[in-house]
Amino acid sequence: MPLSNYQRARMLRAMFQGETYINDDTMYLCLAIREIDSDEVFTVVDEADYEGYARMSIASDDGNWALLTEEDGIENVQTIQFPKVISGINVIVSFVLTDSEAIGGGNVLAIGTLSAYANLNPSDDPTFGVGDVSLKFGG
User: Fold this and answer.
1) Predicted model pTM
2) Positive or negative, the Cα torsion across 58, 62, 64, 69?
3) Distances from the Cα of 93 to the Cαs of 31, 111, 119, 133, in angstroms?
4) For residue 100, what are the β-bridge partners?
5) For the ranges 31-35, 36-40, 56-60, 80-84, which has the lowest average pLDDT?
């Protein structure tokens, strides 16, 4: 899951230009219906639109995130359950962390792709298990 241009710029301005970095106390995980390039956008486009969909809030704390063993990244330590699909069909190809709960709004913080597309149909419960949302630095 690479950091977005927006997030990289925030970090660089804080590190090298003395700008105060304000941590996002809560991030919002959203489902995207196409792959999103970290260099492409600062805000989310083409987000899931099935009936019942909502972004999932995740607090920025060690109860939700843990350093990877190599200490070169971080991953979720709680299951993330999206609302059940009431109606509509979506093919989910990537996921995005944003700083806003509003669907289609906010700034993209990080982007991840799925190992396989997820076909969502009515009655499905989109879920990310422990470790499914990870951000890894280095090679």
Assistant:
1) 0.85
2) positive
3) 8, 11, 9, 14
4) none
5) 36-40
